[in-house]
Amino acid sequence: MFASPCIQVKAALLAAGFIIKETVDLANSADVPWYEPIDPSRFSLTAFRTTRLGRMLTRNLVCALEKTGFAPQ
Hints:
The protein is mostly helical. Helices cover 38% and strands 0% of the residues. The mean pLDDT is 83.
């Protein structure tokens, strides 16, 4: 059976000579899953850039700014 990633990281840090004063696994106590801000299936204004439409608009806007000289290439 595999150890959890947090236990593996702690063991690796101790083996490297670090002194660990405190450890907390924040993934267990978070209100929001870690992947929600980058999940393209959940729409919000802050995550718009990760959607297909947001990536397309950003790419085209940057290309237009480069061609007009407002942004460096």
